[in-house]
Design goal:
alpha/beta, 643 residues, TIM Barrel, seven-stranded parallel β-sheet, 20 helices, five-stranded antiparallel β-sheet, globular
Length: 643
């Protein structure tokens, strides 16, 4: 018998269970749907990977370099050493974090602060100290004296980096705006106005004709900024989906800004986590309190000019907690609550009294430290062409090119099928609850990563299913890596146009493993041809996720720990929030869901409450509005923990 890898054997068995038409007496056909097929699925629980398999390959969690644990940062710090010592002492005593983002400015004048922080050992993300930090050829450059100050941290083994923030938005939106430049340069505007980009070209000097031109221009921009900061940049993107490119171009950390007015939170996480796995770099989440001009700050709700300030302004505390926890559970190396020094304390000075938001942050970070989050299990890789340039905010590839049908299918898949309702840029948000679009229920779970078509064979092969999305160029090297993946047991799903473009290579792929050319499907929600049908997505979830989720719509994700599966359940409903009003919670909006493990279950425990569920299946769970629950599912095969 021809040898076959264990993972491929399990994949073949799983596929047989999905498609086999014959059933014995008293059995239910697994083709009847996810719920009906549970009794059969438990027979092959070994098709799900172990923690060792996930944590030793490309999916291993990437922490900040030199760090042994997840980092929860304070945003901002005092400018003198004595006050900084006070703040660090409070953070240590209360458990309010273990890093700064940003910490001191990346300038020689911060040397005394760096000397103290080197003794603390916490990672430091710095702002460069220039208002034009995003301008390609601007003043913002790290000097010899500045770098020597940062080397104090280097010599102490303390991780540090310099943020290049919201560079995608700057490039496409701010580079040609004179008012921005006048604000940045003030009286020096005339000396720098030649660096402005022409209007109507989305940051380009001339209108690009190809994706390669766009790619080359953005790459040159990013590499120039990183070179001026001597290779110390981390990337933070908000209104763009350029996370994969930042990783490819050498960003120390692939950062996301979420919250604020930024849409597409969950697809951006899928891009960042995929980039982390493709390029083996850590990723991070910065949660912004800005919301349509209003912003969360300490103090009572109040008007300052046209906008609101105070603890009840900006986003809701419920949203912050859900986003902090989800960033952690989704695999981020670092979560930064933006403006936390101005939110977590009544005043950013002694006696450093905590606000309700600060107390909640203490609670959340204690929970994070008390639990092993495991490895996010995202069995489906969405593979986009290397030059796709997906940018949902701009609504055009690379911010400027006309969309093709393949580009539209990519958008529809991510923002209409996987995370429906996430687009409040091109679709008007719910006026009664504009915060509702920031985190969305997931019809198929958060089981997807986004990769570029340059992903190595070992990365592609680590995903049980690979879905090609959009317009893909099938160069010989890509075909070879796809061949390696299907030979290793990955399912390959592709569109009819991909099959046509592959030509005779399609026959080679089909002869090497499971390859499926998807049937055409018109999405009734959009009236457009889709990359994949909702039914096929549901069957992927039924085949590859170790637990079925039923009942009311919620957001969910599954992680693998050393002895269990843990499912994160987020009920985003029942909390209404406008930027300038306090949140309104409807206690009647309870999500009632069921969990049906697809393996023999020993025990089920909710982490936060400690509740132990009865062994009856399915498990029934009620989630209050705006809350997150984590349910640990321990298989019968799990080893008992040491006494």
């Amino acid at each position: 018998m021809k040898s076959i890898s264990r993972r491929r054997l399990y994949t073949v068995l799983a596929m047989w269970l999905i498609v086999a038409p014959a059933v014995g007496p008293g059995q239910v056909s697994p083709c009847a749907g996810a719920d009906a097929g549970e009794a059969t699925a438990v027979l092959i629980h070994r098709r799900f990977p172990t923690h060792q398999e996930l944590s030793s390959g490309p999916w291993r969690l990437q922490l900040l370099p030199g760090c042994q644990q997840f980092t929860f940062t304070m945003y901002g710090c005092p400018g003198n050493v004595e006050e900084l010592k006070q703040l660090v002492a409070v953070m240590q005593q209360r458990g309010l974090g273990n890093g700064f983002d940003p910490g001191p400015t990346a300038k020689a004048s911060s040397r005394p602060l760096f000397e103290y922080l080197a003794t603390v050992g916490w990672p430091q993300i710095c702002y460069p100290g220039y208002a034009d930090m995003q301008v390609k050829e601007g003043r913002c450059r790290l000097s010899d004296e500045d770098e020597e100050a940062l080397r104090i941290l280097d010599r102490a083994g303390v991780y540090s980096a310099i943020q290049l923030g919201e560079w995608g938005y700057y490039f496409h939106n701010l580079a040609p705006v004179e008012s921005f430049w006048r604000t940045v340069y003030g009286p020096e505007f005339e000396a720098y106005k030649h660096l402005m980009k022409p209007p109507g070209l989305k940051g380009y000097d001339t209108r690009p004709a190809t994706r390669q031109e766009c790619y080359d221009t953005l790459r040159d921009y990013f590499l120039t900024r990183n070179r001026f900061m001597r290779g110390r940049n981390i990337s933070v993107t908000g209104h763009s989906h350029y996370e994969a490119y930042a990783a490819e171009w050498g960003a120390r950390v692939v950062g996301l800004e979420l919250g604020e007015n930024i849409a597409f939170s969950q697809s951006k996480i899928a891009f960042a986590r995929g980039a982390s796995r493709q390029w083996q770099r850590p990723w991070s989440v910065q949660v912004s309190p800005w919301f349509a001009g209003s912003c969360t700050t300490a103090g009572p709700l109040r008007r300052e000019g046209n906008y609101a300030r105070g603890l009840d302004a900006g986003h809701s505390l419920s949203f912050y907690k859900r986003m902090w926890l989800h960033g952690w559970f989704a695999g981020a190396a670092m979560v930064t609550p933006e403006n936390s020094i101005g939110i977590f304390f009544d005043s950013p000075h002694a006696p450093w009294k905590l606000t309700p938001h600060g107390e909640k942050a203490v609670e959340v970070f204690a929970f994070m430290r008390a639990h092993d989050r495991g490895v996010p299990y995202t069995p489906v890789a969405l593979v986009l062409d290397h030059l796709a340039g997906y940018n949902a905010y701009q609504g055009r590839p690379w911010g400027i090119l006309e969309k093709t049908p393949g580009d539209q299918e990519t958008y529809d898949l991510l923002e209409q099928q996987l995370f429906p309702g996430a687009d409040h840029i091109h679709v008007k948000p719910d006026p009664s609850n504009p915060e509702a679009s920031y985190l969305r229920p997931t019809p198929h779970g958060e089981m997807f990563d986004v990769l570029l078509s340059t992903a190595p064979a070992d990365v592609l092969s680590s995903y049980p299913a690979i879905l090609l999305v959009g317009d893909v160029r099938f160069e010989p090297d890509l075909v070879g890596r796809l061949l390696a993946a299907v030979k290793a047991g990955s399912q390959l799903l592709l569109h009819e146009r991909h099959a046509r473009a592959l030509g005779s290579d399609l026959t080679r792929l089909k002869g090497s493993g499971h390859v499926e050319v998807l049937a055409p499907w018109i999405n009734p929600a959009t009236g457009r041809a889709a990359a994949v049908s909702n039914d096929r997505l549901a069957r992927l979830a039924a085949q590859h996720l170790p637990v079925a989720v039923g009942g009311d719509p919620v957001q969910y994700q599954v992680n693998r720990t050393a002895r269990s599966w843990v499912i994160e359940l987020i009920h985003n409903g029942g909390v209404s929030k406008k930027p300038d009003r306090a949140a309104i919670v409807d206690p009647q909006q309870i999500a009632r869901i069921t969990l049906t493990p697809r393996f023999p279950l020993r025990s089920a425990t909710e982490w936060q409450s400690g509740r132990i569920f009865p062994a009856d299946l399915p498990l029934t769970i009620e989630i209050p509005p705006g809350r997150t629950m984590f349910v640990e599912l321990v298989p019968q095969s799990a080893k008992e923990p040491p006494p």
